[in-house]
Design brief:
By secondary structure, the protein is mainly alpha-helical. The chain has helices at about 1-20, 25, 35-40, 40-45, 55-65; strands spanning about 80-85, 90. The radius of gyration is 19 Å and the shape is elongated.
């Protein structure tokens, strides 16, 4: 029984240390990429209230990914959001 408890403790410790060391959630969902685009509508709607423009949401994103590039075609500097003619943003993957 001691070996089993010790094994579980070691596995749990390795898991927790590796989870903290790699911190994948700070680089993918918050910092951009497909995961950000798939789930950005949730904080944009529920927290920031700017689903149409995404300005506040992208401002928070830039705290984690400051090297985003703005251009006339991409005024927010986010590859996942595309501007419509009326200035609203559309999250589109095609």
């Amino acid at each position: 029984m001691k070996f089993s408890s010790l094994s579980i403790a070691v596995i749990a410790l390795v898991y927790l240390v590796s989870f903290r060391y790699y911190e994948q959630w700070t680089r993918t969902v918050v910092g951009g990429s497909d995961a950000w685009g798939y789930y950005v509508y949730l904080p944009a709607t529920l927290i920031h209230g700017d689903l149409a423009t995404l300005e506040k949401t992208v401002a928070v994103c830039k705290n984690y990914r400051p090297n985003s590039h703005q251009s006339p075609d991409n005024p927010l500097g986010v590859m996942e959001a595309h501007a419509r003619e009326d200035g609203r943003q559309v999250i589109k993957y095609t």
